[in-house]
Every structure is written in C-alpha cells, then in structure tokens.
Amino acid sequence: MIDIEQSAISRLTAARTRLMMEFPFLGVLALRLPLRPADPDWCPTIATDAQNLYFNIGWIISLKEYEVRFAIAHEAMHCALAHFARRGHRESLRWNIACDLAVNGILMEAGMAKPVEALYDRRFYKLSAEEIYLTLPDDYRGNTLDIHLDANQEDVIDLAEDSEQDAEDPEKKPDPRLAQRPPRPSHSQLETLARVWKQRLAAAAQHALRTSQVSDHMKRLINRLLKPKLPWRAILSPYFVSLARGDYSYERPSRRESEFIFPRLSSRGSVVHITLDSSGSIRKKELTEFVSEVNALKSIVGIDITLHICDLKLSDQGPWHFPAWQNMDLPKHVPGGGGTDLRPVFDWLDKKSIRPDLLVYFTDAEGPFPDYPPDYPVIWVIKGPRQPPWGRRIGLN
To answer: What is the pTM of this model?
Structure first.
C-alpha cells in the first residue's frame, strides 16, 4: 500500500512540475492544493474542497501522464473560478456537469489534451458555468471527471462502481491513512475561500505573464479569466435609470402655487418595449425569472413597459401594457413553443410608427435577425453563445 501510494504521489508531483514548465499559470494554481490520498469508497477518481486535492490511488496509477496533468489542472481551475461557491440553489448534478464543461473548454483552449472520459462540447465554448447550466439540454448525459463535494451522494453513484462491493461490506472499517469525505464548508467559509482563490488567480496570472513560456493565445485566455463579469441585471440597470420618469425640474410653477421656484419631480414619459422569446428552447421558469428581475428594476426607476411575446410570430394576445406603478406579469398561458424569428416585433413597431426609448429582447438568438438595425437602442439579453449582428449583447450568465 505504501509503495503504490508513493508511486501515485510521485506521478502527481511530476505532473505538477510539468505543468509549471509548460503551463505556468495552471501550475501555480495546482501548487496551492496539498495532495491527500482518499478513501476509494467516496472518491473513485479525484476531488477538491478548495483546500486539498483528494485522489484515488489506483485511479491515478491507471492514468497516462497527460491525463494526470489534465486532472490536476481540472481541479485547480474549479477552485480558481470558485465553482464551489457559485452553485446557489441550482440542481447539483446539472451544475457540476456545467462546471466540468466550462473548465474542460478552458483547458483545451489552453492547449491541453483531455482524457477520453472528460466532458467537452463545442457548443459551450467560452461560456461560463452559469450560462452552460441555462443552455444545457434536459436530457444531457455524462459523468463528471471528478467528485464534486457540493453534490449529493447519490449523484456520484455511477462513478463509484468499482468500489460498490467494498462499500456494501458492513465489516469494513475506514483506513486511517486515507482521507474521508470532508464536510461541506459553511457559507461564510465558502465566501472566504472564494476571495482567497480570486487572489490566487491574479497571482498565478502575474507569475505566468512574467515568463516567456506564455503564448499570446494563453495571455488572451488569462485576461478573459481575470476580467470581471457583471450579471445582466447590473449591466441593464443603468439603461433603465437613464430612462427614469422622475427627474428634477426648475420650470416656473403656476402663479397659484407659489411665487418661489423649487426643484420638483417631473415625468419624461419614457417607454420601454420588452420582447420575450417563447420558442421551445426557452423555459417558462427562465421567462418568469427574467420578468421578476425586470420588475425589480422597474419598481426602482418607474418606467412604462410594453410587453411582446414572440416565437416565429408575435402573439395575437399582446401586446401588454404596464404603467410605471404596475408590476409586469406573464399571461397565465404563455403562447409559443415553436421556432425563433427575431424580426416580427421590429416589423410591428415600424408599421405602428412607434419608436420606443429602448427595446430589450430576451432570447436564445437562434433565428433570423432584421437586416438593418432600427433608429432606437436595442439590448439583447441572450441565453447561449450566439452573437447579434447589431445592438448591445448581454449574456445571461
């Protein structure tokens, strides 16, 4: 046992050294995780709690050298991106698959070769785990490369087939030399770990950029990872604030009111048109969450909203008008479920000679756009990787 354990540790140590030479950014991150052999009853492959790197001795011995490097880098990137602290209330298995797809895409973009069983899908290239989670088909299948310690135990049963027989043995006692499954950190501990890894990510980037081994491609990747990503609500908020109805006016009041001029609120009458993509790829839950967030902004700034719902054509039930004081609500039965065409609402506004102060379109953008942009601002809140030909794009991360 001791010999095979030392052999596994030697392979991991050699892999980290190779990472330092070939991918210094990833190597520096990997060095932050102390190596701990783990009990195979809970760890059939590899895992991390953002404090240690746990590994199954037999699994590490079975891998090729490049696969060991990939596995270590995989765990380090989960930590650097603070995936352990970003899950929130998302379903654990779906979230962990999304995290693996995000990390493996980054590692392959960096130039690493991946193990055959590692998840990768070109459709999710350069998307965050949150964006992948939203776009992931409900029937998507695949096992994560590692054990995610925020997952429920039943989520990793498929990965633990090799250790089922031992796990079913009631007489078996844990090996004290092997790490047991660590408890999930508290919320405050997760926040602290996330801050620590953010600092480590920046430090690893600085170290890597000082070396001559970093290619221009890797520099672009590092800059993208370091660039902060704001949630779409934070990006959309300034647009709503700029259109707020209430503003101070110093116009002379009626002589019957007062002879003095005081600043007072006046209404500009701004109107925002919002279009919701109701095609089959957009779920009712996502539409509801989007509307809820828009209502939060609406309640702060006080603007009128006209709502449109469209898949291949505009719903004949709409449009729906919501004054500044009224919450925007979805109809009980959201029409749609077909394909996507992004042109009908622009055609409708053109025929009605309506020029909104702003049009916000929530969509997957998987359909034809108008050939030319209109003469009013358009913001696309997009679920997925598509890029609009014009207008401001905000990713639904």
So the answer is: 0.61
